[in-house]
Amino acid sequence: MKMLMGLRRGLWNYRSIALIILAPLLLLPLPLVIGTKEAECAFVLLLMATYWMTEVIPLPMTAMLPAILFPTFGIIKSSHVAKEYFKDFHFLLVGVICLATSIEKWGLHRRVALRLVTMVGVNPAWLMLGFMSGCAFISMWVQNTSAVAMVMPIVEAVLQQILKAKEEGCVSEDNPGLQLDETDCHFEKMKEAASDQKRPDVPEDTCVQIQTPSQSVAAQPGALSRCKQDLMMCKAMCLGIAYSSNIGGISTLPGTSPNLIFSEYLNQVYPNCNCINFANWLVLCLPISVIMLLLTWIWLYWLFFGSDFRFLCQRGGEQSQKEAAARKVIEEEYRSLGPMSSQEIVTAVVFLTMVLLWLTRSPGFMPGWASLFPHHTGYITDATVALLLGLLLFIIPAYGPSRQYEAMISWDNFQALMPWKVALLVGGGFALAEGTKESGLSLWVAELLTPLGELPVLATIAIACIIVTTVTEFASNAATITIFLPILSPLAEAIHVNPLYVLIPTTLCTSYSFLLPVSNPPNAIVFGYGHITVMDMVKAGLGVNVIGVLATLLAVTTWGVPLFSLNTYPDWA
Questions:
Q1: For residue 292, what pLDDT is reported?
Q2: Residue 420: is it exposed, middle or buried by C-beta count within 10 angstroms (0-12/13-18/19+)?
Q3: Which pLDDT band, with edges at 50, 70 and 90, does 163 fall under?
Q4: Fewer CB within 10 Å: C terminus or N terminus of the chain?
Q5: CA–CA separation, 434 vs 453, rounded Å?
Q6: Which residues have a Cβ under 8 Å from the Cβ of 310 and sit 6 or more positions away?
Q7: Number of other residues whose CB lies within 10 A of the CB of residue 324
Q8: DSSP code for 156
Q9: C-alpha radius of gyration, the chain, whole number
């Protein structure tokens, strides 16, 4: 019996090795029995998808498999595969990370976030909207993970200040927003409250006072009071930050990796397609982000605070002590930043210059500054702008001549933020996409899915969005979009639909991974603060997923149609 238990434990401990070995063995009939180029490429695709979803091998190393297997199967030469691993996308990523490094190093993100919060007020609902707006705005320009890492410490400080105010005995007359007006509740009292909830005569969100002052001192050190409404506020605030980072990231092309992967995929597969640029992507996706942000805010408020929306008409009036405590900590945080430093000013100027040059390079409705180079049409991209301004940050002095020369950012600063994992993962995706094209697998899959063409176009798009949204909960966003782009693109061609009509909404839905802590790094960071459970995230995430899919379908069937001529089949396809 002990031997069996030991064997079982050993197998469980080495389950990753078992999956690494079993997955290729189970897929071996594809290259050995069928033996066509399509089957060999399918072997690589399914093996990579399995490893990406289970993460038994680090994601970047799984992305290296095409460099090994495609030359082995004779699909693509090794020298040609290597070219797929560094594209225009990587230059854009380097430039954006240079800017993000400067923003984080000099604290510009904190100033922006705190300023936005002070503008909307300190009532819990408005406070949540303020933090969500700040996080969404920051994630438009830096990685979603970085945006959450920047904002969450400020959110936690505000939450702890509010809870501490109650711990010190602050009581207000009537505060339907915060509802932190019950008597003091320490660690031991929470256990009593939990037992009292079984009795119908005790209100569910009341913490009963049973301790003497001496007993309170003996309570768990540093434990802050947590009545039900306290917990609801913490849950709503934390989930709002996690979700707003993904919602804001979809607004701009460099905001999140799936957008960049999609853009580079278009350049690679449809070189004559010049439809996607920073400006028109912003026009399409910014309204989606705004709609999603507002509806997510209302959804989280309803889910955790209830259906009392009177606060929408009560912006003014006298503040409770809890709201005053929240405002105090935010104002103190903002004052501690002092006046705007010269480094922050330089960073802000570079940031605004980068955005302005992106917007005006080739806006579509008028000639952009790229037309000043008529003999080099298509040579200059958003990556050129990002890389130029990123390089300047390594040159511009951070201080005046009175101090030793130091650039705005150093290589060590940059390297600490540069997501090399994403760079390799995206490169592997490009190599995989090229392999499916060269082997004919993408064409075979498109023919297989041709019956979907009998459905209305909107139904086909909706099905694709739902499938992608489901898969991205269990696989990384970048891996998901990398797997589906080579499949959905030929599908659109097979049913004679503008590929953008299918690819744009599915690309956006790849970022809608709201259900689980493991779905994406922002979720994991917020979950690590300990305010929410997995079920909290699942319940809230289901609603946000529905909001996201519906908002995306609304966009591509209304203002997206004239913006990208989605109702016509383009020549470049």
A1: 95
A2: exposed
A3: low
A4: N
A5: 25
A6: 176
A7: 14
A8: H
A9: 26
Across all residues in the chain, what is the average pLDDT?
A: 77
Does residue 338 carry a pLDDT above 90? no
User: Which candidate, 504, 515, 521, 425, places its Cα nearest to that of 48?
Assistant: 425
Mean pLDDT of 62-74: 90
What is the distance between the alpha carbons of residues 126 and 155, in angstroms, rounded to a whole number?
A: 13
pLDDT for residue 540: 92
Q: Which of 8-17, 104-113, 393-402, 466-475 has the highest mean pLDDT?
A: 393-402
pLDDT band at 206 (very low <50, low <70, confident <90, very high): very low
Burial class from Cβ neighbours inside 10 Å (0-12, 13-18, 19+) for residue 21 reads exposed
The span from the first CA to the last CA of the chain, in angstroms, equals 64
User: Among 48, 46, 53, 45, which Cα is nearest to 470's?
Assistant: 53
Q: Tens of pLDDT along 493-548?
A: 888 888 999 999 999 999 998 887 767 778 877 887 778 887 888 899 999 999 99
Distances (CA, A) of 290 to 58, 136, 295, 544, 555: 35, 9, 9, 13, 12
Q: Which amino acid is at 114?
A: L
Contacts 24+ apart (CB under 8 A), 301-305: 301/125, 301/128, 301/236, 303/236, 303/539, 303/540, 303/543, 304/232, 304/233, 304/235, 304/236, 305/124, 305/125, 305/177, 305/229, 305/232, 305/233, 305/236
Instruction: Give the three-class secondary structure for 476.
Output: coil
- Provide the residue count of the chain: 573
DSSP secondary structure string for all residues of 345-371: HHHHHHHHHHHHHHHHHS-SSS--GGG
Q: How far is CA 515 from the centre of its chain?
A: 12
Beta bridge partners of 407: 397
